[in-house]
Amino acid sequence: MRLLLQALLLAAAGAAAGLALNPLSPRPARLSAPVRSAAEAAGSCQLPGAGPVAPRITVGEAAPMCLACSAGFVDARSAAEFAAGHVPGAVHLAPGESPTAALLRLEKFRTVVVYDGDPFAAQAEAVAGVLRARGLTDVRVLAGSWPAWTAAGAPGESGPCPGCGVASSRLPEAMP
Questions:
Q1: Inter-CA distances, 64 with 28, 51, 118, 143, 151, Å
Q2: CA distances, 66 to each of 23, 60, 70, 92, 108 (Å)
Q3: Which strands sit side by side in the sheet containing 139-142, from one edge to the other?
């Protein structure tokens, strides 16, 4: 019993000292803010330095930009996937390809949205990094990528890349 009392007294004294000295710390804890574990933080399951290159944008935010033609869209999937369906007016730029021609079409847009076929957007991240390195400042990655776009009923078209000189045909679906 005496050992338990000593332990409680020691714990109480440590807590009181911590609270009293917290403001004197070079990086004091914000005691009024909720505490979140590192596992709850975005990208917590990634290696250090492997975090997202570009901020995310939701389909709900990106679709109106598509309809208003106020953002450029970049499809980072294979040519066959692009031909099967893509965001209207999207530029096809697979990872590893030279972005020079794409940059000429994208430089007129303030915002550029990159997507691929994987909800985790690994290829889109790679292409976004290249575009940012080449001078585009507002490059975002579509959260959920192409699967989220189609699931939301956002507008799409099919056909080969318009930059290759072949016209594409509009698909009937559009956002409600």
A1: 43, 27, 22, 15, 16
A2: 49, 11, 6, 15, 14
A3: 56-57, 139-142, 111-115, 71-75, 91-92
The tokens 């989220």 sit on which residue? 148
In the three-class reduction of DSSP (H, G, I as helix; E, B as strand; rest coil), residue 147 is classed as helix
Which DSSP category does 69 fall into?
T
Per-residue pLDDT of the chain (176 residues; tens, 9 = 90+): 888 888 888 888 888 887 787 777 777 777 766 665 554 444 445 444 555 568 999 999 999 999 999 999 999 999 889 999 999 999 999 888 889 989 999 999 999 999 999 988 999 999 999 999 999 999 999 999 999 999 999 999 998 875 554 444 433 343 33
Write down all domains in the chain, each with its CATH number in brackets. Answer: 56-161 (3.40.250.10)
Measured between alpha carbons, how far is 70 from 19 in angstroms, rounded to an integer? 51
- Centroid of chain to Cα 123: 11
